[in-house]
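Help wanted!
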Amino acid sequence: MQGTDNIDRAILSILTKEARIPMKSLAGRIGLSRSATTERVTRLEKAGIIRGYRADIGQLDDGQIQAFLLVTLKRTPSIGVLDRLAGFPAVRRVSSVSGQLDLVVEVEVGSINALNELRDEVATLDNVEDLTTSIVLRRDIERV
Amino acid sequence: MQGTDNIDRAILSILTKEARIPMKSLAGRIGLSRSATTERVTRLEKAGIIRGYRADIGQLDDGQIQAFLLVTLKRTPSIGVLDRLAGFPAVRRVSSVSGQLDLVVEVEVGSINALNELRDEVATLDNVEDLTTSIVLRRDIERV
DNA sequence: GGCGCATCCGGCATTATGCCGGTTGTGCCG
DNA sequence: CGGCACAACCGGCATAATGCCGGATGCGCC
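Answered by r_m:
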């Protein structure tokens, strides 16, 4: 077994845009048999290179808002921390970019509690320098 | 037809975490028949609520870097602009949050050209106020 | 009542998948 | 050199999932 080669990169590139594509079609596009393709994808999944498959949600329901938590950290957070945050039902997306944490949260209007709980959770991180919560109504968001 | 109800929210919640789940399993979890579930998912896709399905890539190859383009815009960009940017092969993710544009790009080490081309493309947007390109090596990123 | 419509269900033909066994190429070592 | 181990590939068959119907049910409305 070796690392990620060009075929794997092609697979990742396609799956990044069409995660629900049948393995047979994926195989056809990259020029391999179905079984070989499935094998590669499985390997990528087990190796943690493919972390999972997510539906890309465009618009939100009117009955919901999106909240953005922008947090400045002293150092890059561990995967464990990010996974814990991502485990919150309200959390849509977590990204971390060199010392900055960016949460995209979906909350029911009227139940800002979920947002506050999450905010508290984030605040307990030992390396938080600054914490900003901005709430943006759906209409202001064209795409997230 | 009506807007997004609780069943749809359940569907979205599951698909957000397991986009490749078979419709049959999804149906079982939300307590509907397979055909009804498929119908709902199809409706969500056509309505643009589900924009697509993406593989969530964890680690990157050692032979690659990630580059982050942080752009400040005068106004929220149109979906067309974002889609055009997302069409670049190197682009992993595009997000836009109330006037701020955030590109996550994957580029081969040594072929910074792809990054520069993208940077130029972004610079042609008519409402760009500020453009910052930061390049972060893989080791600095625990999760994106 | 009777109509239109959204939503649901089950079934059947088609397609995709999981799971094999078998082949090929490559590096290693006696 | 011959043989071995192993990764990576292929095709095939039983099983599972999907696409695509027809038909039931509930609801608002003229």
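OP: Thanks! One thing I noticed: Chain B touches chain A through 50 residues (CB under 8 Å).
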